Amino acid sequence: MGAGGKTSRRRAVPWVVLALWIGVLAVASPFAAKLADVQRDRVTDYLPANADSTQVAELQSRLPGGESTELVLVYHRDGGLTPADRETAARQVGRIAGEHELTATPRGVPSRDGTTLMYPVISNEPGDDEDKRSAFVDDVRETARSTDGLTVEVGGPGAVTRDAKKVYDSLDGPLLYTTVAVVAVLLILIYRSPVLWLIPLVVAGIADYLSMGVAYGLNQAFGTAISGASTGIMTILVFGAGTDYALLLVSRYREELRRVERPYDAMKAALRGCGPAVIASSGTVAAGLLCLLAADLNSNRGMGPLGTVGVLCALVAMLTLLPAILVLLGRRVFWPLVPAFGSTPKERRSLFAAMGGSAGRRPVTVLACGAVALGALALGTLNLPGDLKQEDSFVDRPESVTALLTLADAYPERSSQPITVMTPADRADATVKAATATEGVESARIGRTGDGWTEVSVTASAPPQSAAETRTIEALRDRLDGSYVGGPSAQQIDLEKTNARDQKVVVPLVLLSVLLILIALLRSLVAPLMLVAAVVAVWAASLGIGGLVFGPLFGFEGTDPGLGLLSFVFLVALGVDYGIFLMHRMREESLGGAEPAAAALTALRTTGGVIASAGLVLAATFAVLMNMGLVSLVQLGFVIAVGVLLDTFLVRTYLVTSAGVALGRKVWWPGRMAKAPRPAPVLREPERV
Q1: Which of 230, 331, 429, 602 has the most neighbouring CB atoms within 10 Å?
Q2: What is the pTM of this model?
Q3: According to the model, what pLDDT value does residue 676 have?
């Protein structure tokens, strides 16, 4: 092909890529717009299908009227309720009963101290329609209002679900806007260009929109669970991982523009140089996330594919769309720091060169001190608060939680949150008798019947989610053979048990899959084991820091049961990501003939800045979760953000580099690079006769 043909190809390829992306977005757009319609955030949507509480919710939906919406109206006055207060309560409850179809006429239950009046309100009117259930709760709250010192609160399972839905609905806008703003600020500081920062941000936004369409397709084709948390994490991964890949590509592209005249050819060289490392790192993250498919918890199992979709969409966008736009804009996109052809970058005192030098002088000492520091931080896990209770799951307590606390104080002798038992219809009376005889049960009554099953509402004598109530639920499950025991407290028990099971199954799978990929990529056994050990140590230290601040600093009363598993998956997968960048460059330098110590220090000096920038961006994007209204998201965002920073500035900079220097060629054992090169033979001149 002649010079004219090559020039035409250089001009055509970027435009073809842009046209293909426009077509892809046109196809994905209708599906992306429907993602919110399939998002489910009830507790039972998170639980596995075989859990008792899930079975209860499923069977309730088959009863006349469908699944119940259970509320508790709480009327309270500190000095004691007045006759006028009781009249107000009766009038408001009567209006609610007149405007909505309730399963029974609400009856007030006064507290012993006379300060509180509780009205249980149960309706099947909304059925299984989430929007109608939310509208019902909102309408009840509009009717039941506080007046003249009388405090009126609407609580109960239906109200808690509604308040949680408000938080999840609020994630979409604020989460996206905050993430974009954080990434934009960091990119402006990193690139110091009025234009360049905007391009990776726009490409990441396009990748996020594409991932929404793909996620909806997964839900329709395979029934993949979609929750507010999983879609939020997907957005975080698209912007965090995508920006990381962009930083690596743009850095390499800038280098190539100094030695290659045409931007098209420079981009080809950049993609050849960093493309394999980016693809390998994204593949490792995807493999780690896909291990969540082995989880029983629907929310965990759904987060795996959605996180993978986010990472892969970011990868494809950053290796196709971003290069096309950069090539079309040419060198001027770097203004005012334009890399001229044939120029050399200004020599600057490199922080990472200095850090690498200190690690290179005393590698064993640095490695030992770092290991001790991580181990000491990991001891903080002993200070993690216990499992998170329902009333402690919101950062700012909503009305449903304050109602629950009011009831706990006013009615210490009984539970304000029923335990629901679904039993075969022909055994309903026997079930009520057996339940009433169970220790910790105050009363039991028969509710609706349909499809061969009967609903039995059980009231425990202990407060909701207390140790005593948990023992009562476990006793009911042991005693009521053939029946299912559910309700809000039982759902929390099932969540904790399932999370514990998932952690035992998924953690080994993640370690094994990541280790196998690293072995294949680095063609070594020692280097992969070193990287995996490093990220596990980072995970333990990050959780330990969480244990030191969650209670004393943040005031959290509990730890989300899924924190350990999800933080492990993300920190191991994303931490190994940076390890690949560093070790890939170290291997490249070693293949070029550099000695092991020199290869390790050169790899740190050349990739340290990019890895640090990428780590800051990724940590900042996950830190955005700390502004959300759920304690579980705040804890997850904090642990991952801290872990990424530890990994970036301590483990990659000092520990991995020190280990590489200390081990020398052994780091590549048992590959051929572990062997010292044979000295070249010395040619002797023939002796003269």
Answers
A1: 230
A2: 0.82
A3: 59
